[in-house]
Write a structure and sequence with these properties.
Elements (H helix, E strand, L loop, with lengths): L1 E4 L4 H7 L6 E4 L6 H9 L3 E5 L7 E5 L4 H6 L1 E9 L6 E9 L5 E6 L6 H23 L13 E4 L1 E2 L2 H5 L1
Parallel strand pairs: 2-3
Antiparallel strand pairs: 1-8, 2-9, 3-7, 4-5, 5-6, 6-7
Length: about 160
């Protein structure tokens, strides 16, 4: 886990620490097309929660199993994003939790199941809850944030080794 001062860019922090084969899981405030393109170009895997304004062009829709639907998966599609030489495909998994709240995740992980993608983000959210506690206690936990609120960047290094 890396922590940056509140004014630092989570995108820049993450991009400065990536290694080929890493897996980065980020919240909806971080992603942009350029960000996705740079990560993919570096050979880095990612799962990112998408904001509601994202409207990618769907080029293939996966058939969901009854188990996927029971888990809360609403859709699993391949989408084309970007234009020209910077156009590339992403997978977009839509998940609805038990309260009816819908989440969309963009990823370049095409070998994992849609439920595994949702689970990866759920685990990231557990870290976020812990980090919110640390953030709210930042005056007592001075090494984490001395210049206001801090930004969380979390990654799982050597994803390819872990997933083998």
């Amino acid at each position: 886990m890396s922590v940056a001062a509140g004014k630092a860019s989570e995108r820049d922090l993450l991009l400065s620490q990536v290694h080929r084969g890493d897996l980065h899981i980020v919240d909806r405030g971080v992603p942009s097309l350029t960000f996705f393109w740079r990560l993919a170009d570096l050979g880095v895997f990612f799962v990112a929660r998408l904001s509601r304004s994202w409207d990618p062009l769907v080029i293939k829709e996966s058939v969901l199993s009854p188990g996927d639907r029971q888990y809360g998966i609403v859709s699993d599609v391949v989408a084309l994003v970007g234009q020209g030489t910077r156009a590339f495909t992403l997978r977009v998994v839509t998940f609805q939790d038990t309260t009816g709240r819908t989440y969309r995740f963009a990823t370049n992980l095409f070998t994992l199941s849609s439920t595994e993608i949702a689970d990866l983000y759920r685990e990231r959210w557990r870290i976020e809850i812990l980090f919110r506690f640390v953030n709210s206690s930042s005056e007592r936990v001075s090494p984490c944030a001395t210049a206001g609120r801090a930004t969380l960047g979390c990654s799982l290094s050597s994803w390819q080794q872990c997933s083998s």
